[in-house]
């Protein structure tokens, strides 16, 4: 599917794409890893061999009270509180012997407040979770009891590939809100960036749109985050579903809050590509990643693949979790 089907029929389009892109039972009825099955030991060795200079890049945004959230779906920015401080140590109120003192702290936050992975229990299709399971059998008030994010512990590390669509296709390195990135845009970016940008089985694909760059410029001008977390944004077109499935990537992350283009491409819809990618493909989606410094370096040296490690915080039963990804070139 390279062209958007009937704009008035998202349900029909989703059903058709789900049938074409399903990985149900591909790795057995008990599988909980989805597309991470593509990221094997050989792929990790390939990724590790890409370290040339030893230069590392953090791909995480900050986790603090000044973050992008403004309450959409009850998501708030992290609240960081100290339990013990240097003041307590100076005053000798901590109760420790021989002069030792310390500091301790706590954070309250939605697990998808900043840079994060969507787990396989995050999105359902007509009450169905990944691998044909009933949503209610997977995620209960106790959390995701089947595909919780902890199942990925130690697995998300391998060859990363950056497609800087903002630079290749956009204006001044950025795509406008509502820009739908199609297969043609992805392939044009690969062609422009050269052999190191080829995308294939087991890769961790990063797509830069420039949306975070624009948000930071607005912040610097005193305008705040605006609708960065929950509003209009460039992103993947629904028509990329078959390409994502055929490429056999292990995961994909973007510098936007929702991975896919907003507004969505149908007259009435909410995140239709999520509805295909997570419960049917079992594809891991990363959102709000900071790709700017890495992209600038790639633009200089012309190398767009690297070693990437991106393990989420293994919160038992979580349907998504914070991540502090590191790319090494």
Tally the helices: 10
Q: Would you identify the CATH architecture of the largest domain?
A: 3-Layer(bba) Sandwich
The CATH superfamily of the largest domain is identified as Putative cyclase
Query: Can you give the mean pLDDT?
Result: 96
What are the low-pLDDT stretches, counting only 5+ consecutive residues below 50?
none
How many E strands?
Answer: 15
Radius of gyration: 21 Å
CATH topology of the largest domain: Glucose Oxidase, domain 1
What is the N-to-C order of secondary-structure elements (H for helix, E for strand)? HHEEHEEHEEEHEHEHEHEHEHEEE
Judged by helices, strands and strand pairing, the structural class is alpha/beta
Strand order of the largest sheet: 1-15-13-7-9-11-12-4-14
Organism: Pseudonocardia broussonetiae
GO molecular function: arylformamidase activity
InterPro entries: KFase/CYL, KFase_sf
GO biological process, one term: L-tryptophan catabolic process to kynurenine
How would you explain this protein's 3D organization?
GO terms for molecular function: arylformamidase activity. This is Cyclase family protein. The protein has 329 residues and is an alpha/beta fold. The protein has two domains: 10-74 and 110-328, Glucose Oxidase, domain 1 (3-Layer(bba) Sandwich), CATH 3.50.30; 79-109, no CATH class. Helices cover 25% and strands 17% of the residues. The protein has ten helices and 15 strands. The protein has helices spanning 10-21, 41-48, 86-91, 135-138, 165-169, 183-193, 211-220, 241-247, 272-281, 292-301; strands at residues 56-58, 79-84, 104-108, 116-118, 139-140, 143-144, 157-164, 180-181, 204-208, 235-236, 251-254, 284-287, 305-309, 320-322, 326-328. It has a nine-stranded mixed beta sheet, sandwiched between helices. Strands 2-3 form a two-stranded antiparallel sheet. A two-stranded antiparallel sheet has the order 5-6. Strand 11, helix 9 (272-281) and strand 12 form a beta-alpha-beta unit. It is globular. The two termini are 35 Å apart.
